[in-house]
């Protein structure tokens, strides 16, 4: 869920995509689907060796060929805020809880006030680790 929500938020923002074959694509994200296939516009493609460049008005990248995506920090922060705010209000995140019926019990039907905080922290840890990996690469 996290990578797709991150990509949905990143629409119309610049990003760098590195493929498994070493090529990189810099452009603005137009759209993405559930398989992480993406469309970019205003694209600059760089060869694996970094010695050849191509400019393209748009391109399509199959999700299974992607090694990693570099997304601006402000997008990561926007996604973090969305995840925390979505859990608020009546009912919260109840659909993700077990109903607590039958053997083995499970969580009761309470109001679920802790899930949004937990998700927020979890999201923060994931986003921080993404940032730290980017810093190590530089």
From TrEMBL:
Residues 101-111 have a biased composition (Gly residues). It is found in: Nucleus. InterPro entries: Lsm4 (IPR034101), LSm4/Sm_D1/D3 (IPR027141), LSM_dom_sf (IPR010920), Sm (IPR047575), Sm_dom_euk/arc (IPR001163). GO terms for cellular component: Lsm2-8 complex; spliceosomal complex. Residues 2-75 form the Sm domain. GO terms for biological process: mRNA splicing, via spliceosome; nuclear-transcribed mRNA catabolic process. Keywords: mRNA processing, mRNA splicing, Nucleus, Ribonucleoprotein, RNA-binding, Spliceosome. Belongs to the snRNP Sm proteins family. Plays a role in pre-mRNA splicing as component of the U4/U6-U5 tri-snRNP complex that is involved in spliceosome assembly, and as component of the precatalytic spliceosome (spliceosome B complex). The heptameric LSM2-8 complex binds specifically to the 3'-terminal U-tract of U6 snRNA. Component of the precatalytic spliceosome (spliceosome B complex). Component of the U4/U6-U5 tri-snRNP complex, a building block of the precatalytic spliceosome (spliceosome B complex). The U4/U6-U5 tri-snRNP complex is composed of the U4, U6 and U5 snRNAs and at least PRPF3, PRPF4, PRPF6, PRPF8, PRPF31, SNRNP200, TXNL4A, SNRNP40, SNRPB, SNRPD1, SNRPD2, SNRPD3, SNRPE, SNRPF, SNRPG, DDX23, CD2BP2, PPIH, SNU13, EFTUD2, SART1 and USP39, plus LSM2, LSM3, LSM4, LSM5, LSM6, LSM7 and LSM8. This is U6 snRNA-associated Sm-like protein LSm4.
């Amino acid at each position: 869920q996290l990578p797709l929500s991150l990509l949905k938020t990143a629409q119309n923002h610049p990003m760098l995509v590195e493929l498994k074959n070493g090529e990189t694509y810099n452009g603005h994200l137009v759209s993405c689907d559930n398989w992480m296939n993406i469309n970019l516009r205003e694209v600059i493609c760089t060869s694996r060796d970094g010695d050849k460049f191509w400019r393209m008005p748009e391109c399509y990248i199959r999700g299974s060929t992607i090694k990693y995506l570099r997304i601006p920090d402000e997008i990561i922060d926007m996604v973090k805020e969305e995840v925390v705010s979505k859990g608020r209000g009546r009912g919260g995140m109840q659909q993700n809880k077990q109903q607590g019926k039958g053997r083995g019990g499970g969580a009761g039907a309470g109001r679920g006030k802790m899930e949004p905080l937990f998700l927020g922290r979890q999201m923060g840890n994931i986003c921080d680790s993404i940032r730290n990996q980017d810093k190590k690469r530089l």
